[in-house]
């Protein structure tokens, strides 16, 4: 995986990236933590400034230890038009087949050692909100998937859709980084202030490269 700004971690020091884009590279697949939720990083596209991620708590399963909605850091990340929600309903007391206008698919898993009926669907949020308010199910979890990924009415299809991940766009002072790159510098940050920094051959600067450095040392970029 070709890493560049704003990502950092492992042998890539923090001044080469943005504070909110640290990667944990201790396993075979790098991970990123967004608002206390861990994601596997499947792809990074520096040109389009997008990355494909998948929730680690749903890896190879649709029966996680806890039922938590997907969260991202909206200050730096955004969903793309290629994303849609796969919504999973857990511990359903009322058969959701009672709602004929919704396409629900049943799956089984145990909650605290007890088996309950569960469902998943890809219908619109307007219908989801209505059915949730009926109190038919105890838990509801939205997990983003790609809109073009087929989800047949099987557990394996739902797991495959989630494990294939979804796309996020990022914005880490993109315009300043563009200015820095055009000037021949490398984008990074100041570890002390966490502000954007342009690393140039003759020093570091707040945006593009200059003839007068703002620091007395030049950072080494791996």
From TrEMBL:
It is an enzyme of class 2 (transferase). InterPro entries: WAK_assoc_C, WAK_GUB. The keyword Glycoprotein applies. GO terms for molecular function: polysaccharide binding; protein serine/threonine kinase activity. Coiled coil: none annotated. It is a single-pass membrane protein. Keywords: Glycoprotein, Signal. Its EC number is 2.7.11.1. GO terms for cellular component: membrane. It comes from the Eukaryota. It catalyses: L-seryl-[protein] + ATP = O-phospho-L-seryl-[protein] + ADP + H(+); L-threonyl-[protein] + ATP = O-phospho-L-threonyl-[protein] + ADP + H(+). Residues 114-202 form the Wall-associated receptor kinase C-terminal domain. Residues 2-55 form the Wall-associated receptor kinase galacturonan-binding domain. It is found in: Membrane. Its main location: membrane. PANTHER family: OS01G0690200 PROTEIN (PTHR33138), WALL-ASSOCIATED RECEPTOR KINASE CARBOXY-TERMINAL PROTEIN (PTHR33138:SF72). This is non-specific serine/threonine protein kinase. It comes from Quercus lobata.
